[in-house]
Design brief:
This protein is mainly α and 140 residues long. The protein has one domain (21-128): Ribonuclease III domain (Ribonuclease iii, N-terminal Endonuclease Domain, Chain A), CATH 1.10.1520. It has seven helices and no strands. It has helices at residues 3-18, 21-39, 47-58, 60-70, 76-88, 98-117, 119-128. Helix 2 crosses helix 3 (47-58), helix 2 (21-39) packs across helix 6 (98-117) and helix 5 (76-88) crosses helix 6.
C-alpha cells in the first residue's frame, strides 16, 4: 500500500466520522430498505404486494424491533453510533412514540455508518435479523 493510499483511507475515515448522524441515517434508511426489498424479492410478486411487504418491515415500529434484536450483537463502537443516532432524532411524526422514533433513527444511523465503514459487518448484522416470510399477500 502506498503512502498516498494510506492517506486517502485515513482521510476518508476522518470525513465519515464528521458526518452528522442525520446524514448517516439518511443513507442508512436507503440501505435498510434495499436489504428488505431484496429479502422479499423472491418468489416473484406483483408490485403492490412487494410494496405492502416492504412497508411493513421498514416502518419505524419494525425498525425499532429489529434494533432490539441486534443490540446483543453490537460492539461498543456500534453502540456509540446508536447513541449518536438516538440523540439526533428530532422532528418525529405525530403518530409515533418518541422512543420508537429514536430507536428507528438509531438503526438507520448504524446502517449508514456500517455501509460506509464496514460492509462485511453490516451484512453480518443484517443476517441476524429474524425476517420471516410474511403471510402471502394476495396477487390479484
Amino acid at each position: 500500500m502506498s503512502l498516498n493510499s494510506t492517506w486517502a483511507i485515513a482521510n476518508r475515515s476522518t470525513q465519515i466520522q464528521r458526518l452528522s448522524p442525520a446524514s448517516l441515517a439518511y443513507l442508512g434508511d436507503a440501505v435498510y430498505e434495499l436489504y428488505i426489498r431484496s429479502f422479499y424479492l423472491l418468489p416473484p410478486k406483483r408490485s403492490h404486494a412487494y410494496h405492502d411487504m416492504v412497508v411493513a418491515q421498514v416502518r419505524a415500529e419494525s425498525q425499532a424491533k429489529a434494533l432490539r434484536s441486534l443490540e446483543p450483537h453490537l460492539t461498543s463502537t456500534e453502540l456509540e453510533i446508536l447513541r449518536r443516532g438516538r440523540n439526533a432524532a428530532t422532528g418525529r411524526p405525530k403518530r409515533l412514540d418518541p422512543e420508537i422514533y429514536q430507536q428507528a433513527t438509531s438503526l438507520e444511523t448504524l446502517m449508514g455508518y456500517l455501509y460506509l465503514t464496514d460492509p462485511q459487518r453490516l451484512n453480518q448484522l443484517l443476517s441476524y435479523l429474524e425476517l420471516n416470510p410474511l403471510p402471502q399477500v394476495k396477487d390479484s
